[in-house]
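Homework help board

Subject: predicted structure for assignment chain

Our instructor gave us this sequence and asked us to write out the predicted structure in token form, then describe one feature. I got the tokens but I'm not sure how to describe them. Can anyone check?
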Amino acid sequence: MRRLAEMPTFHVLLALSAAHCLNDLLQSVITAVYPMLKADLGLSFGQIGVITLVYQLAASIFQPVVGYAFDRRPFVFSLPAGMVSTSIGIVMFAYCDTMAGILVSVFMVGIGSATLHPEASRITSLAGRERRGFAQSVFQVGGNLGGSVGPLLVALIVAPHGRHYILWFLVASTLCFAAMRPICRWYGLYLKGLRERPREASGHACLPLSKGMTVFTIAVIAVLIFSKYIYMASLSSYYTFYLIDKFGVSVSQSQIFLFVFVVSTAVGTLVGGPVGDRYGRKIVIWVSILGTAPFSLLMPHVSLPVTVALSFCAGFMLSSAFPAILLYAQELLPAKLGMISGLFFGFSFGVGGIASAVLGGYADTYGIEAVYNVCAYTPLLGIVAGLLPNLKNL
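My token output:
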């Protein structure tokens, strides 16, 4: 019986992965349409950075708030509520022709992201039971796959016809609502079981480290996220512009090369969680971030085929870190799964947003190639992972 209780709830994990896939597919439409949006509205790189900043800050500010609120008062239908906000934002993004309207639309999409990520991550940890690294990888790879398919669908559906064709992506939101049904059903039964066991529901897990050491460790993790997401922002927001500017590829071709990069993040995410379960979170964090540096440092100095290959390697290495980082942070504060998920998802979104805005202004001033020459060094900050204490996997 104990062995059965430790097994992940696979149908719930698959539904969570599917919901994450469809949600992030919708989220990826924002950045994938940037070249079209820039041409339609005559935007500068700095304005593109501001759009990304508003989107990322909407997500980052609200994620820990949502996580904390639903830690205290769980709500079964939180995931569908977030998808309603995302769907409204997608419709607005398809038709708004002013900068203000675009900012409101991406804010709505950001609110949807702020709701889904901490809540779905919390439910993933609960459903994963004793194999939480594996569960988080299944959940995260759904998001990465959705993010990789999104730019490809934009290249096939939107780029040849115009921005209004973004409305076709409402099919994805409809499928996402369907994927959330078994999640809500399972989560409702889980919460009902907790209400029938009030002592278990109100219990507080012990901290594995002292409060001071916990704060220090979270600060180290924040530095690691900072290094990871500055480089990820340079690729996710400006990689297409870099390829167009340096190699003269078309918009559609640049989207295909972006697809290759985002697929690499899906593969890396799928590998990172199980490896962390087996060998420990710390070694995965250390190797994945610091191990990105050789690829990032070479990328600005090679041909187009080698650039695409190096982007795949860099994406694979970096993305393998996030399941381990998130599980490591959850193990520091095991009674606050939603809040810590929201905090680290939110912080990563915030770093990405601020980095996109800063890098956009830098690209306007010094050129898009200069962005990659500077950002290539950020994975070297992965050296600080050596300061993380070893934790026993929960």
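Reply (TA_rk): Your tokens look well-formed. For the description, you could write something like this. Residues 141 and 266 are 5 Å apart (CA to CA). That's the kind of observation they're looking for.
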